[in-house]
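Incident log, structure service

09:12 report received: a user says their structure output differs between two submissions of the same chain.
09:20 pulled the input from the user's history:
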Amino acid sequence: MNERIAIIGSNSFSGASFARHCLEERLEVLGASRSAEPAPCFLPYRWLEPAQQTRFHFVQSDLNRDLPQLMAALDKFQPAWVVNFAAQGMVAQSWQQPGDWYQTNVVANVLFHDRLRQARWLRKYVHVGTPEVYGNTSGRIDESAPFNPSTPYAASRAACDLHLQTFLQHHGFPVVWTRSANVYGPGQQLYRIVPRTILFIKLGRKLSLHGGG
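09:34 re-ran on a clean worker, output below:
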């Protein structure tokens, strides 16, 4: 197989884990993140055999500052699929400087999507979102549930999803969304909820649950 896929936010836990999966499926992968690659212990695709890693290519690029560079790399690589994990995360911190969250999660992404929709090589765009857009819920909900964000982080992600809906309706932009919650697995940083809970149990400490848990 010689299919090509680009992963935006490939340094993130989910992005790096997905990159490993794609390499195991024998795809050619272009990873892009605003920071240089961290230590291999945080990158599951770096745990593969060297021969498998040769199909991974990395470009350091920030959506806010380096969009022309990123698009040049994508135009050269010409992936059939682009999967975007990149976002300004951290819910609590979004209250302190909300403008930063809107700048990255809305403005930078809108500019990226406007360039991406003109790419003739694109077959499908996957936007990795968050269930935070639905706010507080109970029971099972599906994608038709109304947006009810309760933090600047959630509102910025909801705004980007709504923007993508307009591109889908007006331009036929080939977008699909995912909104998974509390993903976990090998290589995840210890401040995240699942590994942090395991760590606190091991240490015999009480874990604070923000917002009542």
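09:41 both user submissions now match this output. Likely a transient worker issue. Closing.
09:42 reviewer note: Residues 7 and 71 are 13 Å apart (CA to CA). The domain at 4-212 is CATH 3.40.50.720 (Rossmann fold).
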